[in-house]
Design goal:
Blueprint (H helix, E strand, L loop, with lengths): L2 H23 L2 E6 L6 H17 L2 E6 L6 H14 L3 E4 L8 H9 L3 E5 L10 E4 L3 H13 L6 E7 L5 H12 L7 E8 L4 H14 L3 E6 L2 H13 L7 E4 L3 H10 L4 E4 L2 H16 L10 E3 L5 E3 L5 E3 L4 E4 L3 H4 L4
Helix pairs in contact: 2-10, 3-4, 5-6, 7-8, 8-9
Length: 331
Amino acid sequence: MSITRRLFGGAALASLMLAGQAHAQDPVRIALVVKALGIGFFEAAAEGANEAAAELGNVEVIYTGPTDTTAEGQIEVINSLIAQQVDAIAVSANDTDALVPALKKAMQRGITVISWDSGVAPEGRQLHLNPSSNPLIGNMIIKLAADELPEGGQVAVLSATTTSTNQNVWIDEMNKVMGNYPGIEVVGTVYGDDLADKSYREATGLMQTYPDLDAIIAPTSVGIVAAAQAVADAGKIGQVNVTGLGLPSEMAGAIESGASKSFAIWNPIDLGYSATMLAYNLATGKAEAGPGAEIPMGRMGSLKLDENSEGAMADPFVYDASNIEQFKDIF
């Protein structure tokens, strides 16, 4: 072999080794796709995702989503992420079925896909992370209203969108346990599309339509704040109690004013952290999703998947005047 060939061969080998090292050091890019940008719950989830990325040390989190809560907006975002060849997509879906074709395309391109918070149909993801057990959440949101109405009364639901997977499941689970709360009547369900102004108008409309309304249940962090403001503006604090799912930082004023007696939520920071850990472990081949699998979630333990490859992170936690000060500056 000539010296020229030996030098060329050695340079080529060194180049390949350096390229391999660079490739090995490339970060795992995980896209956290939320229902819409500008929502406090999801911004807190992004904080948890970045915590997981820092802990793992070789992860880049891409926090993204549409400007409004539509499936069309999320599909556009997902197609862009496919073009960027990200390693994983973790999505909180605006629609159970509409995202499936785009997410299937992502998986066909070798991209790990999970849903969290609000799920997609099983064929569109590898696993789904529920923030808590759906039956526990459904029971909790009606129990919080019923606990303040020992003699019974009228309650109404202010949800997000008609296609929001998680809210629809929680409302279904709530309806299943209504027999446990005699005297409580659900008089109506309206949708604020996770928009503050529309949620406010819908809550105002509920109080006008049902003058004897005793409580508004909003299983959405946007809707519950808007409903509490609508009750305060209507001069109905003490008459209409607002409860459901909300963030302590956003609901502290409502607890202080009495517009809300109590509400519940899991920690969205933990949720974003867990989703990122799950996506990382699947994308790097450290775990495989499937019925019965247990997948590590870092400090949150592990996720046990059921027959639909779904699992629950933690039980919901109740916030009220006794503890709101402790949590309002955290999330």
